[in-house]
Design brief:
single chain, mainly alpha, globular, disordered N terminus
Length: 550
């Protein structure tokens, strides 16, 4: 159903009002700057402008905060220097330059901690957590957020506590801890309702939708996204509304994939809804410099095109299949351009691999191989074993289709080697963890025994002074207690040894299976080589022919 012109007018007005409100604050601060002297007020006004446009214009936010830092340093204004570094780091982060943001954010965090600016430290910790999350460093993310919660509880800052609960929930969702994710999102929603924070409430609904989407409950996810959309339209939050549309687009895309091919009309309608929502997301955030967001939306559009192309091919519609796959290439190349601009090497290696796969779907294997090699070069540089594994596996498939069996075998060997390396690393970490736990338990038990012996010795000495007759009785009790402790230690050590042996046995079996896979691969290559070599009769016949001709 098309939205009415009246509804669209309301949305537009709300978005304009929101933008106007922010612009008024920036204009007011800019006016004050014109009359400011080179003092702390000017530093604060520059940082204020940086704060206001950190999301909408992160480039301007960085430049303004940099000016503030230079002046604050000249004035030896420590709070100004600290604030400037936090906003510079946040602005760089919002430009999609995650790794570059750490130097500013870490400096801001250290200064805030050293000079006791708890509010600024909490802001630095939040941005550092987001940066770590972007890089998949979830352990560091949660550690930083938990530290932040302690600071905010002292400050009694409920609004930011709710924000941090949201981030903790998002991190658990990324790790697949869906129960914890829901718990923290609901805690955040409760606080935001209490504070009557509609923007925050919308964010909580959006994040609850993300968790239910991860759980595969698409109807529940869509319901929460629609609640968030309604509130974001009401408050005129343009940036978050764009995120809602992007999430709604993803849900419709997943619904399209879940629909059977026999229901072509229904499936196609879901694709249409998904594309419309994606376009709304792009239009709503037009003019805002957020490369990561636009790259993500174009990536999703490309996925839709690839899926529609494959479904069209299954129905026998080759023309539509090729059209959709070429549209996917165009979208992926937009993503490629954005990843290059933001120097996002991880994203760059992934999109290069995706482009190669689409060329394969189009039958352009040589062109696709070029992109695989570029992807491999970057993934090797940044140490992304998962992307390397994917690229080698897909190149082996390309070679096999083209009849390049030697290359197919070599690339498949590399895939096996990387897969085994990743498996062995994971299993080794488990074994080390088990061994460390065992050693810790043994040491802790031994320490307990020593403590008990010391206490009992002192107790015996005291009892000897009181009454010599009780010596034998307490000696027996102590001996019995020690026997129990030693038995407990021995039993625990025995159980731990059994667990360790079980892990080693499992590793041995897995190693044997992998060795068999390699031997099978070698045998397969040998059969190929044998089939390509001429037999003895053929060689003898050619030799006889040569002799007759000679």
């Amino acid at each position: 159903m098309k939205p009415s012109p009246f509804r669209l007018l309301i949305v537009l007005c709300l978005l304009v009002l929101s933008s106007s409100s922010q612009n008024r604050i920036i204009d007011s601060l800019s006016t004050l700057l014109k009359t400011d002297k080179e003092d702390t007020n000017q530093v604060n006004h520059l940082n204020g402008i940086s704060f206001e446009c950190r999301a909408t214009d992160p480039v301007k936010a960085f430049e303004t905060a940099k000016q503030a830092e230079a002046l604050a340093g000249k004035l030896n204004y420590l709070k100004g220097v600290t604030t400037s570094n936090v906003w510079m780091g946040t602005a760089i982060l919002n430009q999609g330059k995650t790794e570059e943001s750490f130097s500013y954010l870490n400096k801001g965090n250290e200064l805030a901690k050293e000079y006791n600016f708890p509010s600024l430290q909490s802001k630095a910790l939040i941005s550092l957590a987001i940066a770590n999350s972007n890089l998949g460093n979830f352990k560091e993310t949660l550690a930083g957020l938990n530290e932040c919660i302690k600071i905010l509880e002292v400050l009694k800052d409920k609004k930011n506590i709710a924000n941090v609960y949201t981030l903790i929930g998002n991190t658990h969702n990324s790790q697949g801890n869906y129960s914890d994710a829901l718990t923290y999102q609901l805690k955040s929603l409760t606080l935001r309702r209490e504070l009557k924070d509609k923007n925050g409430e919308a964010a909580s609904y959006n994040n609850l939708g993300n968790v239910y989407k991860s759980l595969g409950n698409l109807s529940e996810a869509l319901g929460y996204y629609r609640k968030a959309e309604k509130l974001n339209i009401e408050t005129g939050n343009k940036s978050w509304l764009a995120n809602n549309y992007a999430n709604i687009s993803t849900v419709y895309y997943q619904l399209a994939l879940a629909t059977q091919l026999t229901e072509i009309k229904t499936q196609e309608s879901y694709f249409v809804e998904a594309r419309q929502a994606a376009q709304k997301a792009l239009d709503t955030k037009a003019g805002i410099n957020d490369a990561n967001f636009f790259a993500s939306v174009y990536h999703n559009i490309a996925l839709m095109d690839v899926s529609q192309g494959k479904f069209a091919r299954q129905r026998g519609d080759k023309k539509l299949a090729n059209e959709k796959l070429n549209e996917a290439l165009a979208s992926y190349k937009k993503v490629l351009e954005m990843r290059e601009q933001t120097h996002n090497k991880d994203g760059l290696s992934k999109v290069l691999g995706n482009i190669a796969i689409v060329y394969g779907e189009l039958g352009k294997y040589d062109e696709g191989r070029k992109y695989f090699l570029e992807s491999l070069k970057i993934s090797e540089e940044i140490g992304s074993l998962e992307q390397q594994k994917s690229d080698y596996r897909n190149m082996a498939t390309f070679d096999s289709i083209q009849g390049n069996y030697k290359n197919a075998f070599l690339n498949y060997q590399m895939f096996i080697r990387l897969r085994d390396s990743m498996d062995n690393k994971e299993n080794t970490e488990k074994m080390i963890s088990a061994q460390l736990n065992y050693e810790f338990e043994v040491k802790r038990t031994a320490d307990s025994v020593k403590t008990m012996e010391r206490e009992n010795s002192e107790h015996l000495k005291h009892e000897q002074e009181i009454k010599q007759q009780k010596l034998y009785t307490f000696g027996g009790i102590i001996g019995f207690a020690l026997m129990i402790v030693v038995a407990a230690v021995s039993f625990k050590a025995y159980r731990q040894k059994q667990k360790t042996n079980a892990i080693i046995t499992e590793q041995k079996i897995r190693l044997e299976v992998k060795q068999k896979e390699v031997m099978d691969s070698i045998e397969y290559a040998k059969r190929i080589q044998t089939s390509l070599m001429p037999n003895d009769k053929y060689i003898q016949k050619k030799l006889d022919d040569l002799k007759r001709k000679g």
